[in-house]
Amino acid sequence: MFTFQTARVVLFIYTLLLAGGGVMGFVKAGSRPSLIAGVGCASATLIALGVSFWRPYEGLVFATIIALFLCLFFNYRFVTKSRKFMPAGLLAVVSLVVLSVLIISIV
Q1: What does the UniProt keyword field contain (predicted)?
Q2: Is the pTM of this model over 0.90?
């Protein structure tokens, strides 16, 4: 249903959202951990994206693991910590969508 190319486009958009979210958290709340986590996770997804051009299956599996981790992390933050949709709930939903697209394109 989804091709590797579609998964790469979705992964690139996800990378931009992660980096933008980290920068936004730093600018609005002065949160250095948000900046470090956002840019760090965006870097990991960017590496997975780069690997997917040479070894598509392995790169997308790596990206799937990252998306799964972030989906679980943001769900945990939303359910136990904040109960606010922004940003934890939104990123949990986006991570779930990205995870679904990656899994469908791998299978």
Answers
A1: Membrane, Transmembrane, Transmembrane helix
A2: yes
